[in-house]
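Hi everyone, sorry if this is the wrong subforum. Our group has a chain we'd like a structural model of before ordering constructs, and none of us has done structure prediction before. Sequence below.
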Amino acid sequence: MAHSESVHERPNYVAVWAWLVLLLGISLAAVFLPFSQTLTVTFIFIVAAVKAFLVAANYMELRFEKRFIWYIAIIPVLLFIIMTLTLIPDIGTIH
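Answer:
Right subforum, don't worry. Here is the predicted structure as tokens:
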């Protein structure tokens, strides 16, 4: 007797890898753009978040998991953001 499993299409790992390499190149090139250091670092962190999402969704296959797994993955990210935002006044006073 065959049981029904949730069969899903496998991600194109080479395409995901190519996107990760492209985003890495964008992060490295951002250092040479004529923007402020704060804007450059913010941009690099945003690109890093996109890369982390690509890895989690494709290589860890979280996009096929139930919502509970997503909540487990998102909560530390939210806590990191909250902690960073609360420390911004202290960071701004260091000379």
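For your construct planning: The CA atoms of residues 57 and 63 lie 5 Å apart. The radius of gyration is 18 Å.
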